[in-house]
From TrEMBL:
Record's keyword annotation contains Hydrolase: yes
An example Gene Ontology CC term for this record: endopeptidase Clp complex
Pfam families assigned to the protein according to its UniProt record, in alphabetical order: CLP_protease (PF00574)
Domain of life: Bacteria
Protein name stated in the entry: ATP-dependent Clp protease proteolytic subunit
Gene Ontology MF terms in the entry: ATP-dependent peptidase activity; ATPase binding; serine-type endopeptidase activity
Annotated spans, Disordered: 204-224
Length: 482
C-alpha cells in the first residue's frame, strides 16, 4: 500500500515517467490521492494513458503543480484532476502537437494531418475543464502559451493557488536562523571587531527557571602588572578605567543579571496504569533552539524524550503498586550556561475492573413481562423481521437513486461533464457533502452540453506504431519514420 497516497510526476512523460508505473502506484492507493507535477511534457500518448488512469481512479484526485506543467504534463494536470491547485510561482504551458519526420510530400502531408487531429483532441481537454470552446484553445495552442498560477485560475484551467505552507521543521529552522541573524546584528559592530556600544547592549544568553533569583558574576580587573587588565587597557586608550569598564560590561559580562529566557513546566497530575504508557509534553510552547535530555529515570521504569519538543513517553513496570509516585528529571538546554532540570511527576493508578464496570443485572427468568410487552410466535416475528429488512433495503435504494439523480442534474446543468458521472456518483456515496463541494459547486453552464467530436480516424492501424524518442521534449506522435 501507498501510505501517503501521493504520486509524483517529475520528469519527461513517457521516458522518466512511465504510464505503467503511474497505474501501478494508483493500484496501491485507497481513498483520496494527491498528484504532484513538475514536468516539461513528453510523449502525447503516454500522457493520454496517465490522464485516463487518473480519471478512472474511483476516489478524488487532487493535482498540485509544484513547478511547471508544460505540454503533455499540462493536459494531464488539467484533465486528470478533480481539483487542480497551482503552487505559488508555478506555471502551466500549452501548445499544439509537434513531431519530427522525413519522407515524401504525401508522408509529410499525412504527418501534418495527424498533428492537427491530435491538437484538436487536446484542445477538447482544456475546453472541458474551462467551458470555453475548443476553437478558443486551438488558437492559443498555435504557439507556446504560458500561464502563471494566477492566470491559470482566471482562465479556468486551475481551481486555486495554494497558500505557501512551511513544514514544522522548516518553521523551526527559519526561527533559529532569524534568531542567529538577530544576535549577530546586535553583537557585531564591524567586520571582525565587535562594536563596544552595540556589544554592551547585547542580552545575556542563558537558560534558567523562571523562578530563579538574580545572579551576578564579577570578574576581576586582572593582576596589577597584567598588560590585559582594565586599568592598563584604559591607560593605553587614554580613558578612565570606570568609563571603559562601563563600556565593556556587556562584552566581558562583567556585571550581568541572569534573566529567565526559558519558562517551561510539565503537568503535575500525570497518571499511568501498570505496564501502561503515557505521553507528557511541556505546558508551554518550546522556544526555537531549546533541546531536551532525560537525565533521570526511576528504577524499573522506562522513558523516551523527543529532543526538540520535550514530549516524554513514560512506561510503568508491571509490578508497580497503585498510588506509587515517581519523578522523571528532564534537562533543558538553550545552548548557553548550565542546563535547567525540570521534574515530571507520575502517579500509578489502578487498572479499571472491566468486568465490574460492564456487569449488568438481569431480570429473573420467572419475572412476568411488562405491561407494554407483546409476545409473538416465532413465525410472526420472522415475517416482521424480513419485512423490516426489505423496507431498509428499499430505503437505501431510494437514497442511492436520489444521489444518482443529483449527479445527473449536474451533468444536465453543465456543471460537470458526462465523463465524470461514475466518479461523481462514487464520491456522493462516500461523502455527499464533500462531493457537492468538489463537483456540484461548479457554476451552471461550465461544461458545454453539446458533445464535442472531431470526425473519424482515417489513419491506417499500421501507421500508429510507437515512434523513437524525440530529440526535444514535447507532444509527439507515434509514427514510423523512413
Amino acid at each position: 500500500m501507498n501510505p501517503l497516497n501521493e504520486i509524483l510526476i517529475y520528469g519527461d512523460i513517457g521516458f522518466e515517467v512511465q504510464a505503467k508505473d503511474i497505474v501501478a502506484q494508483l493500484n496501491e492507493c485507497e481513498g483520496p490521492i494527491n498528484v504532484r507535477v513538475d514536468s516539461f511534457g513528453g510523449d502525447v500518448y503516454a500522457g493520454i494513458s496517465i490522464l485516463n488512469a487518473l480519471r478512472r481512479y474511483p476516489d478524488v484526485v487532487t493535482v498540485y503543480v509544484d513547478g511547471m506543467a508544460a505540454s503533455a504534463a499540462s493536459f494531464i494536470a488539467v484533465g486528470g484532476a478533480d481539483r487542480l491547485i497551482m503552487s505559488p510561482n508555478s506555471s502551466l504551458l500549452i501548445h499544439g502537437a509537434w513531431s519530427q519526420g522525413m519522407g515524401n510530400s504525401e508522408e509529410m502531408a499525412q504527418l501534418a494531418s495527424d498533428l492537427n487531429q491530435i491538437t484538436d483532441n487536446l484542445a477538447t481537454i482544456y475546453a472541458e475543464k474551462t467551458g470555453q470552446e475548443p476553437a478558443y484553445w486551438r488558437e492559443l495552442m498555435k504557439k507556446d502559451t504560458t500561464f502563471t498560477a494566477e492566470q491559470a485560475v482566471e482562465a479556468g484551467l486551475a481551481d486555486a493557488v495554494a497558500e505557501f505552507e512551511k513544514s514544522a521543521k522548516a518553521e523551526k529552522r527559519h526561527a533559529v536562523m532569524a534568531s542567529g541573524r538577530s544576535r549577530f546584528a546586535k553583537h557585531a559592530g564591524g567586520r571582525g571587531v565587535p562594536d563596544i556600544e552595540t556589544r554592551a547592549a547585547a542580552p545575556p544568553l542563558s537558560v534558567t527557571r523562571s523562578e530563579s533569583g538574580d545572579n551576578t558574576t564579577m570578574p576581576s580587573d586582572g593582576q596589577e602588572g597584567d598588560a590585559m587588565s582594565i586599568k592598563n587597557l584604559a591607560q593605553e586608550l587614554g580613558v578612565h578605567p570606570d568609563v571603559l569598564r562601563e563600556k565593556l560590561s556587556g562584552f566581558f559580562n562583567e556585571e550581568v543579571t541572569v534573566t529567565a529566557t526559558v519558562d517551561l513546566t510539565y503537568p503535575e497530575g500525570t497518571t499511568v496504569v501498570p505496564t501502561g504508557e503515557v505521553q507528557v509534553a511541556p505546558n508551554e510552547d518550546v522556544p526555537a533552539g531549546v533541546t531536551f535530555e532525560l537525565s533521570n529515570t526511576p528504577e524499573g521504569w522506562t522513558g523516551e524524550i523527543a529532543e526538540d519538543t520535550g514530549a516524554l513517553k513514560v512506561t510503568a513496570p508491571a509490578n508497580v503498586e497503585p498510588d506509587t509516585e515517581v519523578q522523571f528529571t528532564v534537562a533543558v538546554n538553550g545552548g548557553s550556561g548550565e542546563p535547567v532540570e525540570l521534574t515530571v511527576p507520575v502517579t500509578v493508578k489502578a487498572a479499571a475492573n472491566t468486568e465490574e464496570e460492564t456487569t449488568q443485572e438481569t431480570a429473573p427468568e420467572t419475572s412476568a413481562p411488562a405491561e407494554d410487552t407483546i409476545t409473538l410466535d416465532a413465525e410472526t416475528y420472522a415475517e416482521l423481521k424480513a419485512a423490516a429488512q426489505h423496507g431498509w433495503k428499499a430505503m437505501e435504494q431510494q437514497k442511492e437513486a436520489s444521489l444518482v439523480a443529483e449527479v445527473d442534474g449536474w451533468i444536465k446543468e453543465g456543471r460537470i461533464s458526462a465523463a465524470r458521472r461514475t466518479k461523481a456518483i462514487a464520491a456522493m456515496k462516500r461523502d455527499a457533502e464533500a462531493a457537492r463541494d468538489i463537483y456540484g459547486s461548479n457554476p451552471a453552464g461550465t461544461i458545454p452540453r453539446a458533445e464535442i467530436g472531431y470526425g473519424k480516424d482515417t489513419e491506417p492501424d499500421e501507421a500508429k506504431t510507437v515512434r523513437a524518442k524525440a530529440d526535444k521534449v514535447g507532444f509527439l506522435t507515434r509514427k514510423n519514420f523512413h
